[in-house]
Design brief:
Low-confidence stretches of chain A: none
Low-confidence stretches of chain B: 1-20, 804-816, 853-870
Structural class of chain A: mainly alpha
Number of strands of chain B: 0
Helix content of chain B: 55-70%
CATH architecture of the domain at 1-63 in chain A: Orthogonal Bundle
CATH topology of the domain at 1-63 in chain A: Helix Hairpins
Strand content of chain B: under 5%
Largest interface: A-B, 33 and 58 residues
Strand content of chain A: under 5%
Oligomer: heterodimer
Distance between the termini of chain B: 114 Å
CATH class of the domain at 1-63 in chain A: Mainly Alpha
Radius of gyration of chain B: 48 Å
Shape of chain A: extended
Order of helices and strands of chain A: HHHHH
Mean pLDDT of chain B: 84
Mean pLDDT of chain A: 87
Largest sheet of chain A: none
Structural class of chain B: mainly alpha
Number of strands of chain A: 0
Number of helices of chain B: 46
C-alpha cells in the first residue's frame, strides 16, 4: 500500500509533517490494540522518514500493472438517481 | 404518581391478606371483568389503586386495562386500543412486558389509512387520541401519495397538503438534482408527524449534490422511531463507502442501484480481464470500448489512460501498430509515459526487456529534466543511474558484454554513446551527482566481483570522502592481498585516525608488519625485515597469546638469513621454550617456508620426536594452526605428522579447548585427513554450547565421502547459525553446498536442524563400511536426483549417471593453466589433486598456495593485463 496514503499526508509533506502524521497514526493504531495496522504505519514511516528512500519511492513507485480502474480512484463514487421506487421499497420496511 | 406502599399481603390479597373492603372491591372488579363490563371494571380498579396504591392494586388495574384493550380490539377499534396500550405503557412501565402480546395483536389487526385518520376530523378528539394517531402516522405511513389522496380527510387538511408537497419533493429529489431552496416545504411544520419526511427529502437532495456533511446533519435529525429512519443506515453507508451487509434486501438493492459502477468502470474492468486472458483480439476490442467511454465520461484522464494501455500492451507483446490503431493514435511519449514503460519492462524476467527498461530509464531522465521534474544534476538523476546499474546486474554477463561491444561499434558509427549499458559509468555518474556512502557502497559491491575494480572504486570513494572508513579498509585489504604491506600500513594509519577502535584495526598492524617482514625475507632483505621485527616487538598486542613465539620464530629466520647464528640459536630456544619442541619445529618450518627460506629449517621425521613430544602433537598443531591463520603463514604438515596427530588425539582430546579443537579440525580438513577431522568434530560437538554449530559444519567438511550427510549437516549448520545470528558461519555453511544442484531441494526447519545436531553428536565414531553412520533419507527425500537415490526409488538410471558431477571435475575450467614445462602426466595428477581439494571444500587459491608457494599464474589475470594493454 502507498505509504503516503497510509500516513494520510500530501506528496510534498515535509519531514516534520511526516513525523507528526506518524505520531498521530500511532496514537490511532497502538501496537497492542491494532498490531497489523500499526505495522503498516511503521513500515510507511520507515520509507518516508529517510529522504533517500522517500525519493526512490517517489521515482519508482508507479505500478503499470495496477487495475486500470485505479486511475480513476480519486473520482467520487457514482451516485445514480434511481427514482422514488427503490427508496420506497426500503421505507416500506420490507 | 402516588407513592406506592409495600403491602406484605399483596400476594394473597384475594384470599386473606387484604382488608375486607379492599378484598371485596377487588373481587368486584374481577367479577366485572369476567362479566365483560370492562369499562366499569376499569373505573373501579382505578379507584381502588388510587386509594391503596400498592403493587397488588396496580396489578389489578393493569389487568383491567388489558381486558379493556382486548375488548376494543374485538370491536376493531385498533387505534383506540393502541392509544390505551401506549398510555398504560407510559404510566406503568413495569407492565410493559404484559402489554407486548396486546401490542402484537394491534399490529396484526388490519386497518385502513382512512380509518386511521378519520377521527382527526372530529373537533372534540381528545389530545391523547390525536397524539396516538399522529404517532402511528409518523411511525407507519410510508406512502405519501396515499396520504395526500386520502378521502377521509378534507382536501385542504394540513396532512394531505403536507403529504402532497412532500411527495412531489421526494420524487424530484430521487430523480435529479434539487437545490436546497426548493425544499423549504412550508406546508410541513416541524411539529407535523410528517416532519421526518421533510428531513429525509432534504438529506437525499444533499446526498446527490455531494454535500455529505449537510446530508449527515439532516439524517441525524430524523426521529428514530419514524418511518423515514428505515432508510437512514443505507444512506450513511453510501456516504462512508463502507461495505457492510445491508440490513434488508431492499436496502441492498437500493444501494447497488445508486452506486452501480459506471459504464467506464465496467469497461476498464473488462479491459483488465482481457489483459489477464492474454487474448489479443479481446484486448484490442476492449481498448476501443474503454477509450470511447473515457472520452465521454472523463476526457481529462484520456491521455493518462492511453499511456497505461500502451505500456500494458507492450508488456503483453501486442503488435504496436494494431494497438495504435485501436487507440486511434499513439500515446504521448512524455516523462510520465517513459517512467511507466520502464517500470513495466523491468518487471519482466526477460533480459531483453530489462535492457529496454535501462534505455527507458535513461530516456525518462532526459525527459523529466526537460519537463522540469528535477534538475539534471540532482539526487533524482543519481538515483536513476544507480537503478539502471542495479538492473544491469540482473543481466547475464555474456549478454551484457555482447551489448556493450555492439554499443562500442554503434558509438563509433553514429556517435551515440549508450552509457546506460555500462554499469561502471552509471555508478560513476551516481556517485558524482550524489557522493553518498550508500551510492559508493553499491558501486563497491558491484566492483567486488571484478578483480582489481574494487580497489579502484575504493580509491575514488576515498578521494571524495576521505573520512569514510569503508574504502580505506578495502584499500588496506587489497594492498595486503597483493603484498604491498607498506601501503597497507599507510591505510591502517588512516583507519586508526578515523576510528581507532574499529574492529578491523585491532591486531592488523601486527599482521601487516609480519607480512611485510616475511615479504622482505622473500626479497632477501633481512635488514628491513629486522626493522619490521623491531617494530612488531614494540606493539603491546605482540605480547599476547602465542604471538611471542611467532616473533621468536621470525627472529630465528631473520638471524639465520643474516648469518647471526648465535642470535638464531637463542631465538630458536625461545620458540621451544614458549611452545614446546614439536610446535616450535612446526612454527619455525612454517615461517621459513612462507619467507622462502626452507633451507634454514626442516621439519624432520615425526619418528625423531620423543614420546612426550608425540603426545603433545595435537595441542601443538592446534596452536601453530591458529598462529598460521592469524599471520597468514603457509603451514605444511607432512602426512606422517598428521597420522601421528590423529593417533595421539584420543588421549589429548579432553585437554584441548574449543578454539584449539576448531584449529585442529580445520587443519585436518585442509590436509584431507578425514578421520582426524571427524574425531575432532566429535570432541567439539560433545562440548556443546555456542560452538557446537561450528563443529557441525566441521563434521560436514569431515564426511567427504558421504554427500547426503555432508549436505544435511551443512544445511543444518546454516539454519542453526542463522538462528544464532552468526552470518559468517551461515555463509560458510551455505558456501560448502553451493553448486550441489542435486541437493538444492533439501531444506531444513529449525527443529530438523536441531535433530541433525543431536544425531551427529551421538555419532562419535568415524564412518566405515560396516558402520556408515547416520543417514538422512527422510530429510533428503525421494526427490534426490543422484544415481544411487534414483536406483533406490526404482527409477531408470543411465550408466553415465553413476558418474558424479565431481567425476567430471577434471574437465572443468578452474581458471588456471599448468605451466608449459609441466609434463602431461604431472599435469593430469595436478588436476586430480585440485579435484580432490575442491571435494574437501578447499578453494583453488588455497590449494595452490598450499601446494606451490607463489601459486601458478592465473589465466584470468593474464587476460586482464592484456585487456588493460589494449
Amino acid at each position: 500500500m502507498d505509504p503516503i496514503e497510509v500516513l494520510g499526508i500530501s506528496r510534498n509533506a515535509t519531514d516534520e509533517e511526516i513525523r507528526a502524521a506518524y505520531l498521530l497514526k500511532v496514537r490511532e493504531y497502538p501496537p497492542d490494540r491494532a498490531p497489523e495496522q500499526f505495522e503498516k504505519v511503521r513500515d510507511a514511516y520507515e520509507i518516508l522518514r529517510d529522504p533517500r528512500r522517500r525519493l526512490r519511492h517517489r521515482l519508482f513507485s508507479v505500478d503499470p500493472g495496477a487495475p486500470l480502474a485505479s486511475l480513476f480512484a480519486d473520482e467520487a463514487r457514482p451516485r445514480r438517481f434511481v427514482g422514488p421506487g427503490p427508496w420506497l421499497e426500503v421505507l416500506k420496511g420490507k | 404518581m402516588p407513592q406506592r406502599r409495600f403491602d406484605s399481603n399483596e400476594t394473597s390479597l384475594n384470599a386473606v391478606g387484604g382488608t375486607p373492603s379492599k378484598a371485596a372491591t377487588e373481587a368486584g372488579v374481577r367479577q366485572l371483568i369476567a362479566s365483560g363490563d370492562h369499562k366499569t371494571a376499569l373505573e373501579r380498579a382505578k379507584e381502588l389503586h388510587k386509594a391503596s396504591s400498592t403493587i397488588a392494586s396496580e396489578a389489578l388495574l393493569v389487568d383491567a386495562y388489558a381486558e379493556r384493550i382486548r375488548s376494543l380490539l374485538r370491536r376493531n377499534l385498533t387505534l383506540e386500543a393502541q392509544s390505551l396500550i401506549d398510555l398504560v405503557r407510559q404510566r406503568y412501565p413495569t407492565a410493559r412486558t404484559r402489554l407486548d402480546e396486546l401490542t402484537a395483536r394491534v399490529v396484526a389487526k388490519p386497518r385502513s389509512l382512512d380509518d386511521l385518520v378519520r377521527p382527526l376530523n372530529d373537533p372534540g378528539l381528545v389530545a391523547a387520541q390525536r397524539a396516538a394517531i399522529e404517532r402511528v402516522l409518523q411511525q407507519d405511513v410510508w406512502d405519501l401519495a396515499a396520504l395526500a389522496g386520502c378521502e377521509a380527510l378534507p382536501a385542504d387538511h394540513s396532512l394531505r397538503k403536507g403529504a402532497a408537497a412532500l411527495e412531489r419533493a421526494f420524487v424530484a429529489a430521487t430523480n435529479g438534482p434539487v437545490a436546497e431552496d426548493a425544499l423549504s416545504l412550508p406546508e410541513v411544520s416541524h411539529r407535523s408527524p410528517l416532519a421526518p419526511w421533510k428531513l429525509l427529502t432534504r438529506a437525499i437532495a444533499s446526498f446527490y449534490r455531494g454535500e455529505d456533511e449537510s446530508c449527515r446533519r439532516y439524517l441525524d435529525g430524523i426521529e428514530p422511531q419514524s418511518a423515514p429512519q428505515r432508510v437512514v443506515p443505507t444512506i450513511k453507508a453510501m456516504l462512508t463507502g463502507e461495505a457492510a451487509a445491508p440490513p434488508t434486501p431492499a436496502a441492498g438493492a437500493l444501494r447497488a442501484r445508486i452506486t452501480r459502477a459506471s459504464t467506464l468502470r465496467s469497461a476498464l474492468e473488462a479491459l483488465d480481464q482481457a489483459f489477464a486472458s492474454a487474448s489479443k483480439g479481446r484486448i484490442l476490442k476492449a481498448i476501443r470500448a474503454v477509450l470511447d467511454q473515457c472520452q465521454q465520461v472523463s476526457p481529462g484522464q484520456l491521455e493518462s489512460l492511453r499511456q497505461h494501455i500502451s505500456v500494458r500492451c507492450a508488456v503483453a507483446d501486442l503488435d504496436p501498430a494494431k494497438v495504435v490503431v485501436a487507440m486511434g493514435g499513439p500515446s504521448r511519449h512524455d516523462a510520465t509515459f517513459l517512467r511507466l514503460f520502464a517500470r513495466g519492462m523491468e518487471e519482466s524476467q526477460d533480459p531483453e526487456h530489462v535492457v529496454v527498461a535501462c534505455r527507458l530509464w535513461e530516456d525518462f531522465r532526459h525527459a523529466a529534466v526537460q519537463e522540469g521534474w528535477f534538475a539534471a544534476n540532482g539526487r533524482e538523476a543519481a538515483a536513476l543511474s544507480l537503478h539502471i546499474a542495479d538492473l544491469l546486474r540482473r543481466l547475464p554477463e555474456e549478454l551484457l558484454r555482447e551489448l556493450q561491444q555492439r554499443a562500442y561499434s554503434q558509438a563509433k558509427a553514429s556517435g551515440e554513446k549508450m552509457s546506460y549499458l555500462f554499469p561502471e559509468e552509471m555508478y560513476q555518474r551516481a556517485c558524482a551527482l550524489d557522493p553518498h556512502p550508500e551510492s559508493f557502497s553499491q558501486w563497491m559491491d558491484w566492483a567486488a566481483r571484478r578483480p582489481g575494480e574494487a580497489e579502484r572504486v575504493a580509491a575514488a570513494w576515498h578521494k571524495i570522502r576521505p573520512r569514510d572508513i569503508e574504502p580505506v579498509l578495502r584499500l588496506m585489504k587489497e594492498a595486503e592481498a597483493r603484498g604491498a604491506f607498506g601501503s597497507a600500513l599507510g591505510y591502517l594509519a588512516k583507519v586508526e585516525q578515523i576510528d581507532g577502535l574499529h574492529s578491523s584495526a585491532r591486531g592488523t598492524r601486527l599482521r601487516l608488519l609480519a607480512g611485510s617482514a616475511l615479504r622482505r625475507l622473500q626479497q632477501k632483505k633481512p635488514v628491513l625485515a629486522a626493522e619490521n621485527l623491531a617494530e612488531m616487538s614494540a606493539l603491546p598486542e605482540a605480547q599476547q597469546g602465542d604471538r611471542p613465539a611467532f616473533l621468536a620464530a621470525l627472529r630465528f629466520v631473520v638471524s639465520a638469513v643474516c648469518g647471526h647464528s648465535e642470535e638464531a640459536a637463542a631465538a630458536r630456544a625461545d620458540v621451544e621454550r614458549l611452545l614446546g619442541s614439536a610446535a616450535a619445529a612446526m612454527l619455525v618450518f612454517a615461517v621459513a617456508t612462507t619467507s622462502k627460506q626452507r633451507a634454514i629449517a626442516h621439519l624432520g621425521s615425526v619418528g625423531d620426536l620423543s614420546r612426550t613430544e608425540r603426545a603433545s602433537l595435537p595441542a601443538a598443531l592446534a596452536r601453530v594452526t591458529a598462529l598460521a591463520a592469524e599471520m597468514h603463514l603457509m603451514l605444511e604438515v607432512p602426512g606422517s605428522w598428521m597420522i601421528e596427530v590423529a593417533k595421539q588425539f584420543p588421549a589429548s582430546r579432553q585437554t584441548l579447548d574449543a578454539a584449539q579443537l576448531r584449529s585442529l579440525a580445520e587443519s585436518a580438513v585442509r590436509a584431507g585427513v578425514g578421520d582426524l577431522a571427524y574425531a575432532v568434530s566429535s570432541a567439539g560437538l560433545e562440548r556443546g554450547g555456542a560452538t557446537e554449530v561450528r563443529f557441525l559444519l566441521l563434521r560436514a567438511q569431515a564426511v567427504t565421502g558421504q554427500f547426503e550427510r555432508r549436505v544435511v549437516c551443512a544445511k543444518a549448520a546454516a539454519v542453526l547459525a542463522s538462528q544464532q545470528q552468526d552470518a559468517e558461519l551461515a555463509e560458510e555453511a551455505g558456501e560448502l553446498v553451493r553448486g550441489l544442484f542435486a541437493f538444492d531441494h533439501v531444506s531444513l526447519t529449525f527443529d530438523q536442524a536441531r535433530a541433525v545436531l543431536q544425531t551427529e553428536k551421538a555419532a562419535g565414531e568415524p564412518p566405515s563400511k560396516r558402520r556408515p553412520g547416520p543417514t538422512y533419507d527422510d530429510l533428503v527425500g525421494g526427490s534426490c536426483q543422484c544415481a544411487s537415490c534414483r536406483r533406490k526409488r526404482g527409477e531408470a538410471v543411465d550408466p553415465f549417471d553413476d558418474l558424479d558431477d565431481d567425476d567430471f571435475v577434471e574437465d572443468e575450467d578452474f581458471g588456471f593453466e599448468s605451466p608449459p614445462d609441466m609434463p602431461p602426466k604431472m599435469a593430469e595428477m595436478f588436476a586430480e589433486e585440485i579435484a580432490k581439494a575442491i571435494r574437501r571444500g578447499e578453494s583453488v587459491e588455497e590449494f595452490m598456495a598450499r601446494l606451490l608457494p607463489g601459486g601458478l599464474p592465473r589465466r584470468s589475470t593474464r587476460r586482464r593485463k592484456k585487456r588493460r594493454l589494449r
